[in-house]
């Protein structure tokens, strides 16, 4: 009895399939007799550059991921910029294909920008068909903060906390570069791919934590990420961001004196962000790394920035996609 019942159950899907095919020949006929379309549908064009926001928050947990972005080049995810806590979850939610994400840019090594870095390596390797060589860039060390190469080593190096990761899922090689952190260091091109993809960086200032900003360029489009920085680094940021199509500026404080005074040694207030965007002539400004008080007072922040910068301003949200190509930007601004 039992084997027969199991056999019947196993055959049920096949039976249902056959019945469905016999009972519904119409779609098949319609397909064969329908007039051929005169125009062929083409897939929508991909923007040259696109940013996917994985985390638009900062160190305080209030529903936004810690700072993290993925940059798509011609529609393909290529660059991870910062890896704040929550990046791993957002990557899964968005079903991002990590197969070509081999460039990692770290603005600085605070936890809200790097907490998910090892999780990213994990996710990337488990999805990989072959060995991976990462190019990782981040600031040199100072004080309590290790240089980026040591930081990566402490995570997944031979004596690191998760040394197993380098062969878990894929064989991984880590090519880590420590970037100059003195404010008078010249801007440096750190990626110059045959495809035309470029990355430049410049030192910024974020209190006692070494920090850098990045500019990504491709097919004449450009995105600049300020990272966390206080106002003392604005001349460097303006230099890097000249005429950029998109500036993503981390906005973690309100204009003084509305935020705790010690935070102004770490972050740039909105009115200074507006001046920087104006002086750099950027075409669009997106505010990210939002603190709860900034997120709840967007009108005041907009007004402050609007005193000097007249271009489009928006507030980043997790999972948002920001295409960077003239046509796409115009479309979004409508
Ligand atoms: Zn931060």
Attribute tags:
334 residues; alpha/beta; Metallo-beta-lactamase, Chain A; seven-stranded mixed β-sheet; 11 helices; 14 strands; globular; disordered N terminus; binds zinc ion
Describe what is shown at a glance:
The chain is α/β, with parallel strands linked by helices.
CATH architecture: 4-Layer Sandwich
Contiguous runs where pLDDT drops below 50 for at least 5 residues: 1-34, 330-334
The topology string of helices and strands comes to HHEEEHEHHEHEEEEEHEHEHHEEH
| CATH homologous group name | Ribonuclease Z/Hydroxyacylglutathione hydrolase-like
List the helices and strands and how they pair.
Layout: H1 2-23, H2 26-33, E1 49-55, E2 68-73, E3 76-83, H3 87-94, E4 103-105, H4 111-114, H5 117-126, E5 132-139, H6 148-156, E6 172-179, E7 188-192, E8 198-203, E9 212-218, E10 221-225, H7 234-241, E11 246-250, H8 270-280, E12 285-288, H9 292-295, H10 298-306, E13 313-315, E14 321-324, H11 326-333
Parallel strand pairs: 3-4, 4-5, 5-6, 10-11, 11-12, 12-13
Antiparallel strand pairs: 1-2, 1-14, 2-3, 7-8, 8-9, 9-10
Bound molecules: zinc ion (ZN).
